[in-house]
Structures are given as C-alpha cells and as structure tokens.
Amino acid sequence: IVSQKVSDSLTERAGQFGLILDDISITHLQVAQQEAEKARFLVEKAEQQKKAAIITAEGDAQAAILLAKSFGSAGEGLVELRRIEAAEDIAYQLSKSRNVTYLPQGQNVLLNLPT
C-alpha cells in the first residue's frame, strides 16, 4: 500500500517534468524495525552480562566466606603451602632462564619465605 502510494506520487511528479518512470523499487523498508530489533538485542545482551556479573560476584563472595571460615578453623596452613608452591614454581622458571646465574642463599628473596 505504501509503496504503491509512493510509486504513484513519484510517477505523477516526474510526469510534470516530462519524465516517464518505468519501474520504481523501494528498498530498506525495514530499517527502523531492524534497528529496533538490534537495540532490543543489545539491551538483552547487557541484561545477560549484568546477570552473569551478579552471579560471578555472588560466587566470589561465597568463596571468600568459605576461605575465611576454613582459615579460622584450620589456620594459615593452606596459605603457607600455596606460598611455598609459588616459590618453587618461580625458582623452577628462573632456573630455566639463561640470564639467571645466581640465587643467593640465606636471604629471603622469594615471596618473603622464612629461611
């Protein structure tokens, strides 16, 4: 209906200038609808990202609570174990490097470990 009205109007207006239009094609009729769908998709995507961030934050909070409880009941043993494992890993990585030739002994150089 709309394209027919536009076609008739253009044909009539072109006729006033002595032009004859054989065919009129209207493209991009759904631009507004496509833009609305794109905007709706972006809003839904943002909402999903918001939900994912909330769920992640809740999980991190629960993990922190569990760690705090376990530290309270079991002490700092796990932290010390992780510190030692990290120091071993760092020493191993440094030992593979050609640029490292000296690691001092008797000093506390890796992660504040007791000697």
Structure description:
The chain is mainly α and 115 residues long. It has helices spanning 2-15, 31-74, 77-96. Belongs to the prohibitin family. It comes from Catacroptera cloanthe cloanthe. One of its GO terms (cellular component) is mitochondrial inner membrane. Its main location: mitochondrion.
At a glance:
Helices cover 68% and strands 0% of the residues. With 115 residues, it is mostly helical. The protein has a domain at 29-96.
Helix content: 55-70%
Q: Judging from the principal axes of the Cα atoms, what is the shape? A: elongated
Strand content: under 5%
| Amino-to-carboxy terminus distance | 88 Å
Ranges where pLDDT stays below 50 over 5 or more residues in a row are none
Structural class: mainly alpha
What do the pLDDT scores average to?
A: 82
Largest sheet: none
Rg of Cα set? 35 Å
The helix tally amounts to 3
**Overall number of strands:** 0
Along the chain, the helix and strand elements come as HHH
